[in-house]
Structures are given as C-alpha cells and as structure tokens.
C-alpha cells in the first residue's frame, strides 16, 4: 500500500478514499485502487490534464487530443448542446475512463451554452439577500447544465471582494462580508451537488485583496495571518466541513502564512498557491484538513508562468500538491515535461499515485452520490425567475436628493452619457426611454467636440437644454485588464460629473459596483451588477417609479470613504 503525504502526516490510498469527502467503504476503496494498479503510466499521467474545448478548434483537433492524452477533464467554453453531446458520445466510445465534463457556471448556463442567458452575476444574486431565490436560480443553472452531461463546475467563486480596485473579482464575488459569502457559497455547493455536479470552489487562498489580476501576474493576498483566518479561512473551513470535493488553487501568494512557517524566507522565494507546497500541503491539507481534489487555475496565466521555465512549472505544480493541471500552452510539450519528470523520479511514484487516487476517487463520487433526475424549468419559468432575481437585486446605494422617479413631463430632456467597456445597457435604456416619451440626447464618449462644449459652454444654456443627466456605466469585469475604473474622457475629463449641483444627476452602474470612488459627489447612485437585458429592464422600471428598489448591497459601495457619502 503506497503512503501519501498529507500536510505534516502520512495517508495511504485507502485512508484517502475512506476519509471525507470520499467516505468510501474499504471494499469500494480497494476496487478503485485495483483499477489504478491496472492503469498504464501514460494513462495515469493523462489523468493529470484538464483540457479546454473551444469552438475555435476543429472537431478533429479535439478528438485527437482526447484519444492521444486521455485527459482527466475537459472544460467547455460556450458552445451548442449538440456539440457537447457529440463529444460525450465520442468519449464514451473511445475512452475507458471518462473525463470530468465541466464549465464555469458562475452565474448561469450561458458559460456553457451559447443560446442561454444567465442570472446576471454572483453579486446580483447576493444582492437579492434571498437564499431561497438564489437556490432556485442555481438549481435552474445546474439542471440545465446536467441535462447536457456536465458533471463539474468551476464555481462558486468564494473570494471576498475586499479591494474596490481589484480588476477581476468584482461582481463574480458574493461580496465583502464573510457571513454572506460563506452562506451563498454553501448554498451553491449544496445545490450543484444535489444535481450531480461537482463544485470546484475558487481561488485558494483568496482573490479580492490585491488591485492586480493574477491572469497577468502573480497577485498577493496581503492579509495578516489572523486577518486571513478570520475571513477567507472561515469560508474555506465551512466549505471543507460541508465536504466540498474540489478546490481550485489560484496564482495568488499568501506571504503571511509562508513567513509564519519560515520566518527567514526571502521575498523572492515566496510562491503562489499553485506552486507552493507550503500553502497546499501545510495550510490547505494540513491545517484546514482538506482531503479532496486540488486543481490549478488556468496554467497559461501570467501568474503561473512567472517563476520557472514552463517545462519546470508544470512539474513544480504537481509536486506542490495540485492534482490536475488546468489547460496547457502546448499539450505535447507539457505532457512530455511531466512524463519525463515521472520517469526521472522528479515526480515520485507516490505523488503520482496520490493525484490519480484523488482524481478517480472524485469521479467515483459522482456514481456514489447519484441523485434522481428531476424536470427542469420551462423557458417561461426560467424567464420569470431571471426577472425576479433582477427585480430583487438592483440596489439604490445613494439618494441625496430624494429622487423618486423619472417623470416624462418634469424630466423630459435627458442627457445620456454611456461610458464603459460595453454599450449593451445604454442602448437598451435609450430605446426604452424614447419609447416612454422622453427626449434623449445620447453623447458619444469619443466625441471630443461635444465633450469640450459641455465643459466650456454656458451653465445656464446647459441647464436649459437638459432636465436630467443620466450616466450609464457599463464596466464589466474581464480577465487580463489592469483596471476597471470609470474613464471620463481624454484629454480633459470632459464627461466628468461637473454639474451635480445644477442638474439632477443619476449614475447607474451595470458592472463595477465601486464607481462612487471616482464620482463621490453624484447624488443618486444605483448598482445593478450586470448588463443582462432582464437586469437593465428591471433598473428602468425602478427609474420610472414602477417598482421599488429592493437590493441590499453585498459590498461597501462607498469604498470606506466619507466623501463618497457626501453631496
């Protein structure tokens, strides 16, 4: 019986499989061990790979890599149900061990199926402050995904959105409050599990503290060890006690922990979780007692590839304690790097067996915990549920002028200022307000002449021209961007809110919830957390006074500042 390291102790394959979250009987565990013993070295190494499917790749390429590597998992980018079912049928025919079939179901089946819409964002769900409603929404997402054969999701995001300037976590998070994030995450884990979808919670040891994106560079969770244990540690402990089966390791450093273990460690020797035996074996497995599957975040990110040559990094991550490598840069190169490391004993037989034990054990959980299939929602029921979430999530954060509604008589002339990295929300708002009888002047943020005229023209003429100024900010969180803050136009900031004392000014955000940071004196500020059409429609209904604001902000939208509360 091969023994494995777990934190500061030793576990056998049998102990791994008979311990939480697996809890197999001795007989069940021994059957799995026999299955592993019959696998070839190539098959075992193939199980370490978690590959990506994209419609950009021809069918022949996808099928070729599946049969050649026999990977442990496959993640889909948005595609068609027909494609997913065809790949599943191919795998059932050609592969003796089925891969995990997964997607990023963070806020909807739109991350899997290109004909689906989602439920806005995790933060919108959280803003409803209604766990029953969240359960219904996640249940719909899970059932839709499960109907195509999906059995794993890289969600929920259990990061705390602590730093308003973090450019990537944002509305993917349930918020900045530990209890709220823990409750929402636990609900998602339960619902996905009940639908035979394995949740992979992410991104250990926790994103949302740094103001940089670990897609581009290794980011840092700079909390003290006490602060970490009282925040992220609480969330992870609760989920591990709940028997969450899988955790994604992020390209994120936690210096306070490493320095508590090795006080003399040099800054240059600190590593992100994906490359840190200290964080994975010491903290996650040793102190938090996690015995499940650890998967890297995407290994083509800058945060992963900043420490070693690629051929060494893919080996270091397995030795650090990651059981599966998510994505590749060059599949053949990465496979050969790991194969050579196993052949040379750099990755020991013990470490390889440990990883494969947890991979096959996690796959066996799907059969062990199988639930009866239930009917999903009709299209009409889905739409009603999405509208409920939108109606209950949109949040009036600030109202310093006792704003009640836009009145087509009193507020007829509206200057609409659309700013952002998307324009979906402003286009829908403009069309709807025009249909409601408002005269809407929509400015182009690239129209320098208009912007300069706004800055330099007579205030009296501008007041005569417009009854209301309506900012529509559509800054969506996207990977690989260095900032997600509002830009008021170059070269002069010509679209800044400079007439807040003269013309009623309303700022709507359909993405980043922290724009008060850059517009602190705006009197009315509303967070909608998503530019999905149902959310935009719900926001308009509230602007027109036909529906009250019901959302509860999951974050400090005032950014911990006094001036953002002023007018």
Automatic annotation (TrEMBL):
<feature type="domain" description="Glycoside hydrolase family 3 N-terminal">
    <location>
        <begin position="41"/>
        <end position="360"/>
    </location>
</feature>
<dbReference type="Pfam" id="PF00933">
    <property type="entry name" value="Glyco_hydro_3"/>
</dbReference>
<protein>
    <recommendedName>
        <fullName>beta-N-acetylhexosaminidase</fullName>
        <ecNumber>3.2.1.52</ecNumber>
    </recommendedName>
</protein>
<dbReference type="InterPro" id="IPR017853">
    <property type="entry name" value="GH"/>
</dbReference>
<keyword id="KW-0378">Hydrolase</keyword>
<comment type="similarity">
    <text>Belongs to the glycosyl hydrolase 3 family.</text>
</comment>
<keyword id="KW-0326">Glycosidase</keyword>
<dbReference type="InterPro" id="IPR019800">
    <property type="entry name" value="Glyco_hydro_3_AS"/>
</dbReference>
<dbReference type="InterPro" id="IPR001764">
    <property type="entry name" value="Glyco_hydro_3_N"/>
</dbReference>
<dbReference type="InterPro" id="IPR036962">
    <property type="entry name" value="Glyco_hydro_3_N_sf"/>
</dbReference>
<dbReference type="InterPro" id="IPR050226">
    <property type="entry name" value="NagZ_Beta-hexosaminidase"/>
</dbReference>
<dbReference type="GO" id="GO:0005975">
    <property type="term" value="P:carbohydrate metabolic process"/>
</dbReference>
<dbReference type="GO" id="GO:0004563">
    <property type="term" value="F:beta-N-acetylhexosaminidase activity"/>
</dbReference>
<dbReference type="GO" id="GO:0009254">
    <property type="term" value="P:peptidoglycan turnover"/>
</dbReference>
<dbReference type="InterPro" id="IPR036881">
    <property type="entry name" value="Glyco_hydro_3_C_sf"/>
</dbReference>
């Amino acid at each position: 019986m091969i023994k494995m390291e777990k934190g500061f102790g030793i576990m056998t394959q049998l102990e791994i499989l008979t311990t939480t979250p697996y809890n197999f009987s001795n007989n069940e565990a021994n059957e799995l061990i026999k299955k592993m013993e019959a696998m070839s070295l190539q098959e075992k190494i193939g199980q370490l790979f978690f590959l990506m499917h994209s419609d950009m790749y021809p069918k022949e390429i996808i099928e070729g890599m599946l049969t050649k590597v026999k990977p442990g998992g496959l993640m889909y980018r948005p595609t068609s149900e027909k494609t997913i079912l065809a790949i599943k049928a191919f795998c059932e025919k050609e592969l003796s061990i089925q891969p995990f079939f997964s997607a990023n179901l963070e806020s909807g089946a739109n991350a899997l199926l290109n004909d689906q819409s989602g439920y806005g964002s995790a933060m919108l769900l959280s803003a409803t402050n209604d766990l029953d409603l969240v359960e219904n929404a996640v249940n719909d997402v899970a059932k839709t995904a499960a109907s195509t054969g999906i059995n794993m999701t890289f969600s929920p995001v259990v990061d705390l959105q602590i730093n308003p300037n973090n450019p990537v976590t944002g509305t993917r998070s349930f918020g900045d409050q530990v209890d709220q994030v823990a409750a929402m995450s636990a609900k998602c884990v339960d619902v996905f599990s009940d639908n035979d979808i394995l949740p992979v919670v992410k991104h250990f040891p926790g994103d949302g503290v740094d103001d940089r994106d670990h897609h581009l560079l290794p980011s840092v969770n700079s909390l003290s060890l006490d602060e970490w244990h009282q925040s992220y540690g609480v969330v992870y402990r609760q989920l591990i006690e709940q028997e969450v089966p899988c955790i994604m390791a992020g390209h994120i450093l936690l210096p306070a922990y490493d320095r508590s273990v090795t006080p003399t460690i040099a800054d240059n020797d600190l590593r992100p979780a994906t490359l840190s035996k200290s964080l994975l074996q010491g903290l996650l497995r040793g102190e938090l007692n996690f015995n499940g599957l650890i998967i890297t975040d995407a290994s083509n990110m800058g945060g992963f590839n900043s420490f070693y040559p690629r051929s060494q990094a893919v080996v270091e991550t397995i030795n650090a304690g990651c059981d599966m490598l998510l994505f590749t840069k060059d599949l053949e190169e990465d496979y050969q790097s790991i194969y050579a490391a196993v052949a040379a004993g750099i990755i020991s037989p013990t470490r390889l067996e440990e990883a494969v034990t947890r991979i096959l054990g996690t796959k066996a959980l799907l059969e062990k915990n199988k639930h009866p299939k239930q009917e999903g929602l009709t299209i009409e029921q889905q739409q009603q549920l999405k509208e409920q979430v939108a109606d209950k999530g949109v949040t009036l954060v600030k109202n310093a002028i006792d704003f009640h509604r836009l009145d087509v008589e009193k507020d007829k002339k509206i200057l609409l200022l659309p700013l952002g990295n998307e324009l979906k929300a402003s286009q829908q708002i403009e069309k709807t307000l025009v249909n409601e009888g408002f005269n809407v002047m929509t400015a182009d943020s690239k129209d320098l002449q208009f912007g300069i005229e706004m800055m330099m023209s007579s205030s009296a003429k501008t007041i005569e021209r417009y009854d209301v100024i309506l900012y529509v900010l559509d800054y969506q969180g996207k990977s690989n961007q260095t900032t997600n803050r509002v830009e008021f136009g170059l070269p002069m900031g010509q679209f800044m809110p400079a007439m807040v004392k003269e013309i009623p000014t309303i700022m709507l955000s359909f993405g980043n919830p922290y724009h008060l940071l850059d517009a602190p004196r705006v009197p009315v500020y509303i967070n909608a957390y998503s530019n999905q059409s149902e959310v935009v429609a719900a926001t308009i209904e509230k602007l027109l006074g036909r529906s009250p604001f019901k959302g509860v902000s999951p974050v400090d939208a005032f950014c911990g500042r006094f001036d953002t509360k002023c007018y």
